[in-house]
Amino acid sequence: MDACPFEKQHPSQLQKDALFFMQLAYNQALEAWKIDEVPIGAIVEKDGHILGMGYNQVERTRDATAHAEMIAITQAARALGDWRLVGCHLYVTKEPCPMCTGACILSRLDTVHYAVRDPKMGGLGGGLSIHDIAGLNHRLKIDIGVLEEECRTLLQTFFHLKR
């Protein structure tokens, strides 16, 4: 019997995939829940390295722009020393709103992975399809549904308890 293929690899050499990063975004969403914010979390990654992470902090900061995505994008830009996040990927537990979608496009992210669609306020296919506007100077790749069930349950439970 062959040895487990992971035994020969150092843990940092293991493949980090969309599920790995979405689980980290989910953990950020739990941080939002702890402070009674809508539980949404986000991670910005490039070449397997986390450049930014965030969770919703709108109520705590009294700032309508303090969305998980905006915080993660800002951290990533600081980490790179450039507002252009070329080669970077965003992982977020819920579809970005129009504001956050705009930030994704303007910052030149390569891919946005989101778990749960938002049919009312989503900007990447749920409520609107901002990324499909003709004439945009940057096109995002979109990946939907990684860790969807867990993220949907988290959001639904949060709002159920609020009612």
Describe this structure in words.
- Mean pLDDT is 92; it is low at 1-13.
- The chain has 5 helices and 5 strands.
- The longest helix is centred in the N-terminal third of the chain and has 17 residues, at 18-34.
- It has a 5-stranded mixed beta sheet with strand order 2-1-3-4-5.
- Helices cover 36% and strands 18% of the residues.
- The chain is of the alpha/beta class and 163 residues long.
Topology summary:
Blueprint: H1 18-34, E1 41-46, E2 49-55, H2 58-61, H3 68-80, E3 89-94, H4 98-106, E4 111-116, E5 141-144, H5 148-162
Parallel strand pairs: 3-4, 4-5
Antiparallel strand pairs: 1-2, 1-3
Number of strands: 5
> How many helices does DSSP assign?
5
The percentage helix is 25-40%
Task: Tell me what portion of residues adopts beta-strand conformation.
Answer: 15-25%
- Strand-and-helix sequence, N→C? HEEHHEHEEH
Unreliably modeled segments:
1-13
Structural class: alpha/beta
Strand numbers in spatial order across the main sheet: 2-1-3-4-5
In angstroms, what is the radius of gyration?
16 Å
Name the overall outline: globular
Assembly context of the chains = single chain
Main sheet characteristics: 5 strands, mixed
Kindly report how far apart the N and C termini lie. Answer: 55 Å
Q: Report the mean per-residue pLDDT as an integer.
A: 92
Note the main attributes of this structure.
globular; 163 residues; alpha/beta
Could you give a quick summary of the protein structure above?
It is built from five helices and five strands; from the N terminus they run αββααβαββα. It has helices at 18-34, 58-61, 68-80, 98-106, 148-162, and strands spanning 41-46, 49-55, 89-94, 111-116, 141-144.
